[in-house]
Amino acid sequence: MEDILFKRKNGYENMTDKLREEMNEFNEGYKAFLSLCKTERECADFCKKVAEANDFKDLAEYKTLKKGDKFYIMNRGRAILMGVMGKKPVNEGVRVVAAHIDSPRLDLKQNPLYEAEEMAFFKTHYYGGIKKYQWVAMPLAIHGCVVLKGGEKINIVIGEEENDPVFCVTDLLPHLAASQMDQKGGKIIEGEKLNVLIGSEGLMEEEKLSVKKNIMKLLNDKYGITEKDFITADIEVVPAFKAKDVGIDRSMVGSYGQDDRVCAYTALRAILDTEKPEYTSICYLVDKEEIGSCDSTGMKSKFFEDILAKLCYMSCENYCDILVSEARANTICLSADVTAAVDPNYDHVNEKRNSAFFNKGIALMKYSGARGKSGTNEATAELVRKITDIFDENDVAWQTAELGKVDEGGGGTVAQYFAVLNIDVIDCGVPLLSMHAPFEIAAKYDVFMGYRAYKAFYN
Ligand code: MN
Ligand code: MN
To answer: Domains of the chain, with CATH numbers?
Structure first.
């Protein structure tokens, strides 16, 4: 009896040719997105372009809003909100899917460039929860932008084209690593050793060989930047490889940045496929989730509240503050973020009756947190009912999940920042293996179910 109640079906038990075809096609688009968009800025730009191509207009171009209108708003180039006006007025609530487009990586420091033993390096400060030892001895690419005096923005991407050079953080040879290997995992590679090797050719200047000078000359020739310009830049170091099929059966996707671009991409595709919904539908892709959402482009910013007020103002008669608080109280949000899939290699961290598995669909997390649910949002039973009914009515495969065993660890999402706005919210995302590693794995079936879930929620 218990098994029938709790065991979710594997998606391949009822796989049809039609579903397989749709799922595979969807994942081709997903892989292309992952390979192209490796920073929050690149993701936001991509969404803006795709939204414009699908009749979404900058909110600034509208004076008033009516049902069916499609709009987007960029937030400082690092976050984007896209929406479709619904049949019901905004104060009756909106339907939000919120995902984040920042991923763990190495950021260049403000003064990154230095030379040691006639080699040149960039100093970095890692961003988000990484296992530092995973970032050495593999090809890396540099993505970012530099803002010049006067505001001109120079975009930099090196390491992605077939003939581009790549970069790397070196590691110690095993022959001489006896004391290194005695260290605890967190200390095997220390933060200040995450220095990116970027050159070794010297330039003779005033009878002195300088590798650093040569690097700056090359950067100046190509981008017109000087060393000072690193101070006014957002530059990130990310894995240089592209998204790939994983498995002899090609049933999985392996890539950098799937936390949380898997939910971002599926939510994006869902909003693009939403026409004249009942409730105004919003896809909000935010920045800085991996470091606590504290930024004007992160979920703790007033940006979302302000936009909701603006939507009320532009669409409701007799605008007043009460309409905005009504809009918040009636809104439902899916906090679309990844969760951990059970990894048979490390299943000692899971309680399997309450864990997410590959190929069993989108994972609903009623709560996350750690140490007795601390620091979490917990969705009401009523909300879980409402969402699971929507999923069941729309052929969305779903499962429930907790992030690991009780007291094994834990984590948080942006859900709590919606909850404080008096918005009903539940975590709902795609399970991953190797989360936060440079190469994360998702099951294609679950990715496709993510898209289906968000689309059903909007419509
Ligand atoms: Mn995440
Ligand atoms: Mn994360």
So the answer is: 4-103+256-458 (3.40.630.10), 105-239 (2.30.250.10)
